[in-house]
Every structure is written in C-alpha cells, then in structure tokens.
Automatic annotation (TrEMBL):
The active site is at 2 (nucleophile), 605 (for fru-6p isomerization activity). It comes from Marinobacter nitratireducens. PROSITE patterns: GATASE_TYPE_2, SIS. One of its GO terms (cellular component) is cytosol. This is Glutamine--fructose-6-phosphate aminotransferase [isomerizing].
C-alpha cells in the first residue's frame, strides 16, 4: 500500500527520505518518487518504476539537494504502475504532492479542472488533488489555506503532504481515512504514513486524527482539527528499539518473525496472567463491567486476522458459552445486519489501519453495539484510538507481508480475553487454571516446533513442483488449516485451499491425486479418530499426505503419508502451536521457488484503501 515520507530540516533531506522509503517497502509498492525544493527555490523531482533501489540510483546520478522534501512509494489503484503515474504529482512546476488513499469523486473534479485549463499528465486521482490545491493557491496565495479549501471538495480517503516552491520553509499535511504521523525532531520535523519510516531520525511521534490539517516547519508543528480549531496532539515515544526493524542474522524478515514467536507470545501474556488465572484488570479498568454484560460477540477482521477471529469463535462458544459470529470486514460493512442486544464488537487487526476493518468499526459505533474492543499490534493506530477497549498484542513491528507473529500473538490475546469473558459466564476456576497453565507452556512448545525446522525444510521439497494443494483441519484446527493455505498461496504462489476435513467427500476429494499434496493438522483431540478416516479417504485416491500430528495421536509415517510429530499440547492452545509448522513449510517452499518472500507480488502489508 502507498507510503509517504516528508522532512523539513537544516540538513539535506534526500537521505532521510530515501531511508524512510526503504523502511516502507514492506507495505508493498510498484514505483517510488521524491520531490525537494532546492536552494534556488525550484522543485526537483525524481520518479522510478520498480524498487526504491531504482529511485536511489536515479538520485545518485542526479542528486536532489534541498531541505524540504516529500517522497512516496505507490501501490497502483488508479492507472497502471508507471513512471508517469508515480508520485509526487505536480501542478505546474511549483507545487508537488504525495497522497495515500483514494479520491472517489476524482472524475468529476478532473473534468472541472480540465475546463479550468489544467493539463493532466497521469491517470491518477492524486493529480486532481494537485491541480485543485494549485487552483485554490492562485486564489488565496497561501498554501495552508489552499489545502484547507481544497480538501472540502474531496470525497474518499487521503493522507496528503504538499509543498510549494513559493513557500520553501514548510509543508502542509492532512489526513482523512488514511494514517499519517508527525515525527518530532530538534530543529527538524518529519511526517510519514508509518512511524517505522522515521525511526532513524526520531522516536517521538504525534498521530494526526481524522480531519486534522498540519503545518510542518523546522521549529514548529501547528495542527488544526476539522472545525479549524487549533489542537495539540500528544507526543508519544516509540516503544520498540530501532533495531527491531533489521533482519539481523536471518535471511528474511518472515523467518526472523517466525522465530520471534516464543518471545512475543510470552510478551503478550505478560502482566495479564497469574500462574493460574487471568488478571482481568489488565484488560482495562472498564473490562469487568463490560464483560459482565456481554451476551454475544461479533468479530470483524481481514486476512490472517480473520483467521484468528475464526479460532476465537471456537474458544468463546466452548469456554464462555457466549454466541459468537465472525465475518470479514469487507462483507460485513456492506450488508444489513441484525444486532443482538448486548453484543460486543471485536475488531482484530495487526496494523490497526485496514480500511475495511476501520469502516466496519465506524459503522458499528453508530449501530448500537454494547462496546467496541480492539485486538491490535500498533499503538496509536486508528483502530486503537477509536475503540472503547484495547488489548495490545506485543508482536513488535511485523515487516514480512505474510503475517506470522501477529497471528500467534492475536490468538494469545484472544484466548486471554475469552477466559476473562468465560469467568463472567460460569467457567469453573479449575478449568481457568488448567488453561492458564497450558498458555504458560506455549512459548516453550513453539520453541520445540521451531527445532523441527530442518525436517520441515526437507518436507517442503515435495511442494516445489506442485501447482495445487489442499489443507485439512477439524474444529479449531480448521482456521489453522485456512491460515496455512493462505501462507502458502501468499508467498509461494501455489494454489492452496483449506477445507474442514469432514467436507472432503462433498467435493474436494474429486481433485485428489498424486499431484495434489494434502496437508493436515492433527492434534490429539476428540476429532482425531474422525480425521484419521479422512486421511484414509485421501490415501485411497493416491493422494500424498503431509500430517502434522500429536506424537500421541497414533498417526504413523508410511507409504504416501509423511508424519511430522508435534509435541503434545493442550487441545485449547493447540491452534497457536500448530500454526508454526505450517508457517515454516510455506516459508521453505517459497525460498525453494525463489519468490520474494517478504514482499510477495501484488500484496501489501497494510491495506489502507478499500
Ligand atoms: C493484508 C496483509 C495480511 C493481513 C491483512 C489484514 O492483506 O497482507 O497479512 O492479515 O491485510 O491486516 P490487519 O493489519 O488488519 O491485520
């Protein structure tokens, strides 16, 4: 998804902007560009199709010296990926703009601006905004006022940063529906769509709120809210060390993040559990009152976070006895729903900026839910700021587009939440203690699974030349199978489908032959005997099986069945542990296939547009 960086300083900003763009690469993009205002008060611009490295080469050849600049990585929405469509966009040769988001009424504005004599050089919605601001600038002669007037005409989502050569000492930025953060320096200030971009230059951030417009100068940041009232936004310090965004000894961020799971799962438990119970107050001072009155839970999320929600449904209904519905945000937000009384609206999101999830939350706040709870990994994100109650996961920055540690920490947080809810709904203290003890064992069990990495790498060779695969699971392992299939398709580009194992004979069995590897997760629970029958169904059709099974489950390797024995785990915590071998499997298949593991084609880390 698009990324924005901007800087105003005493020093040349091109190095800061380039490094910022590199740190935004993980969001996914197809082109990159930069504009600065030079010492002669001219806008200098470079734009390149492809990676930030290409832009860096272009800038090495023709440096963009200047102390005020903006830069952008683009993920095409309107118009193909090309140099002409790359940002920054200009109106004339004095005004430059970068934009993240989508302007829905850009066609009408484009016609209007063409009639006013503006010439368009790209197919983007962003260029419309550039001309609209320039039109206002000609009328009012002040960049801040021009931006303020222009945005009243925009419908859609945007984070914007604008510079003008006639006002070379500041930039004007604003946000509506897309994230934007101000990085506070000493004698210099910065902006970005994600604080990670600015970690080399500051650890102090102000998060702009919806409708804010800000004037960013070297010595001063002034912010006004939507009504035009001057506002202060709190400065917060970035909590994780700047080096947490380096790959360290690992070949890819994804592998590093898989290996971080024992630590970050533990961090997500910390302060929230005693040896044998959940510390409900740790979920927030209002948590007890709220949980006492919840009669139904509606979970909303996208992608991997949706799979976490699907696992949680099994837990919530089993342990708390509270009905739970789960839906992807992009569907939920566009249909009519019946809201049960006392329903808790629960959003799960790694980034806290996913457009569909935020839109669903905003609707929900109007719709009469009891309260909105967020499970999120990014402090200060829109989701966190707009929810009534928040449980932060402690995964730290996740850079690999394919989500790994965010998922297992979401599951950890969701299980803790479930136990707190269950306590208000009659869960016996002994059962709570049994599960809390099982949660404490998870980091060690994940470590045990990581020790199987070499064997899983060996297994992965069988997938290299395959085009399709099937993932099976039963009960709470069905969403784990879905997550395993998502990982494989995201990074290895092998078609992977997940089915509840019991549905096998209602269709997918027709596809099974020696070219269709079938992956199954089989913890030792009540369903394992049924699962074994499903495995037989596959074997009888010549299908090759890859089974991740509890060592007590009685599933043995033989002709056509490769069994990877997983240490015994509690049935409730099994989804967390069984996710890890599937992550490793996908990772190794992708490495063997030579794909771009951390930035798979066509995907973005944070989907901040619809
Ligand atoms: C994108 C990412 C996924 C992520 C999904 C939801 O598709 O590539 O990894 O699961 O968005 O993101 P969120 O930040 O809301 O969890």
């Amino acid at each position: 998804m698009c990324g924005i960086v901007g800087a105003v300083s005493e020093r040349d900003v091109q190095g800061i902007l380039l490094e910022g763009l590199r740190r935004l690469e993980y969001r996914g993009y197809d082109s990159a560009g930069m504009a600065v205002i030079d010492g002669d008060h001219q806008v200098q611009r470079a734009r390149e199709l492809g990676k930030v490295a290409a832009l860096s080469d272009a800038i090495d050849a023709n440096p963009l010296d200047g102390q005020l600049g903006i830069a952008h990585t683009r993920w095409a929405t309107h118009g193909e990926p090309s140099q002409l469509n790359a940002h920054p966009h200009m109106s004339g040769d004095r005004l430059a703009i970068v934009h993240n988001g989508i302007i829905e009424n850009y066609q009408d504005l484009r016609e209007e601006l063409k009639a006013d004599g503006f010439t368009f050089t790209s197919q983007t919605d962003t260029e419309v905004v550039a001309h609209l601001i320039e039109k206002n600038y000609r009328a009012v002669g002040d960049l801040y006022d021009a931006v303020k007037a222009a945005i009243t005409r925009l419908r859609g989502a945007y984070a914007l940063a604008v510079i003008h050569a006639d006002e070379p000492d500041h930039m004007v930025v604003c946000r509506e529906g897309s994230p934007l953060v101000v990085g506070v320096g000493i004698g210099e200030n910065f902006i970005a769509s994600d604080q990670l971009a600015l970690l080399p230059v500051t650890d102090r951030f102000m998060f702009l709120e919806e409708g804010d417009i800000a004037d960013i100068r070297k010595e001063k940041v002034s912010i006004h809210d939507r009504e035009g009232t001057p506002v202060e936004r709190k400065i917060t310090r970035f909590e994780h060390g700047a080096d947490s965004v380096d790959k360290g000894e690992y070949r890819h961020f994804m592998l590093k993040e898989i290996y971080e799971q024992p630590r970050v799962v533990k961090a997500t438990m910390e302060g929230r559990l005693t040896d044998s119970s959940v510390l409900e107050q740790a979920l927030g001072t209002d948590a007890a009152d709220l949980l006492e009155n919840v009669r139904h839970v509606q979970i909303i999320a996208c992608g991997t976070s949706y799979h976490a929600g699907m696992v949680a449904r099994y837990w919530i209904e089993e342990l708390a006895g509270v009905p739970c519905s789960v839906e992807v945000a992009s569907e939920y937000r566009y249909r009519k729903h019946v809201i049960q009384p006392d329903t808790l609206f629960l959003c799960i999101s790694q980034s806290g900026e996913t457009a569909d999830t935020l839109a669903a939350l905003r609707q929900a706040k109007e719709a009469g839910f009891r309260a909105a709870l967020a499970i999120c990994n990014v402090p200060g994100s829109s989701l966190v700021r707009e929810s009534d109650l928040v449980i932060m996961t402690q995964a730290g920055p996740e850079i690999g587009v394919a989500s790994t540690k965010a998922f297992t920490t979401q599951l950890t947080a969701l299980l803790i939440f479930t136990l707190a809810l269950a306590r208000h709904n009659g869960l016996a203290p002994e059962k709570e203690a049994e599960i809390v003890k099982a949660i404490h064992l998870v980091p060690g069990q994940v470590n045990d699974v990581l020790a199987l990495d070499g064997e899983i790498e060996e297994l992965s060779k069988a997938f290299m030349d395959k085009n399709h695969s099937l993932f099976l699971g039963r009960g709470s392992q069905f969403p784990v199978a879905m997550e395993g299939a998502l990982k494989l398709k995201e990074i290895s580009y092998i078609h992977a489908e997940a089915y509840p194992a019991g549905e096998l004979k209602h269709g997918p069995l027709a596809l099974v032959d020696s070219e269709m590897p079938v992956v199954t997760v089989a913890p030792n629970n009540d369903l394992v005997e049924k699962l074994k029958s499903n495995l037989e169904e596959v074997r009888a059709r010549g299908g090759e099986l890859f089974v991740f099974a509890d060592k007590e489950a009685g599933v043995k390797s033989e002709e056509g069945i490769h069994v990877m024995q997983i240490p015994s785990v509690h049935e409730i915590t099994a989804p967390i542990v069984y996710t890890v071998p599937l992550q490793l499997l996908s990772y190794h298949v992708a490495v063997l296939k030579g794909t771009d593991v951390d930035q798979p084609r066509n995907l973005a880390k944070s989907v901040t547009v619809e």
